[in-house]
Amino acid sequence: MNTKKVANWISGAVSFFGGAFLFGVSMNMFLSPPRAPEGTVDVVMGGVTGIATVINFLYDKLPIGVLIILLNIPLLLMNIKVSGFKSMIKTVAGIIATSVAIDLTPFLPAALVDEPLLRAILGGVTMGAGAGLLLTRGFTTGGSDLSAVLLKKRFRRLSTGRLILIIDAFVVIGSAIVMGKFEGVIYSSVSIFAYSAAIDAILGGSEKAKMAIVISSKHEEIAEAVNERLERGVTYLHGSGWYTKENKEVLMCVVKRNEEYILKQLVENVDRDAFMILTDATEVLGMGFKEIESRPEDSGDKDGAKEKRRLKREARDVKKAAKRAARKEKKSRKKNKK
After folding, report:
1. For 133-167, how does the pLDDT look when each residue is reduced to its tens digit (9 = 90+)?
2. Spelled out in words, what is the top-level CATH class assigned to the domain 209-281?
3. How open is the CA angle 152-169-115, to the nearest 5 degrees?
């Protein structure tokens, strides 16, 4: 095993265990500290973690980590049925690691008991940092992400991000009703925002993605692996080497920041001699990314808005003319029959 592999393995282990530990810190020190005095407001996160927190509030003997695993099992089984077990391995590992970390760290002291807003911010940032570390190595923590993937097949017009937001909103509002602490909605919203901001800071921004250029003699195998594992499209660019004068197929694809590590692994596993370029894509519009929204009225383009209205009027006029012509033809046919 060479030095590079050892360093990569150590880095991966630190990200995995460090990210899981930060989940434990977030839950047991800030969001739902078991050592806090009675009456302390619990800050409920969205998704499965939030549901587990509410159940723990109602039935104190059930550990949050165990509940998270149990609640994720049906979601995992449904996703495995759709995507296959191989694509869920790192999700299973992420769920187990974070859940075990939460249940093994209740010894941590409760922090800022009298400052629920600060607890919400620090809890969200800490959990987001943990999730971000896990995502840099391709691990996910299940919950809302798994639910959103399943719902996306039914509600195709809604983006995955919006579906996650809707799920989290239902969980937060439901928790406030069940726990009878409506001020918790504000703290939960702040915590979820801090969580998202921390993930974006680690991964390099919510709207940013990575564009990859791959040159390899095994381009077909790499393209198939990317399409099968990441479900991303791959474009062939026809290139030619200046020195060798050989024609080469160049692969181009765009992936999300949390998929970057998986892409690198896929390419390395297929062809260690591949040449790969990764660059930031500031904004990506289209299938699998941000929806394309072209609204001239919103951007102040009055000419574009007028042109759009004119085309609509013309389309209506054409339809009306076609209907009139059809009616006239029908009448003339009746007259000819008589």
Report:
1. 888 887 888 888 778 777 777 777 776 667 778 88
2. alpha beta
3. 145
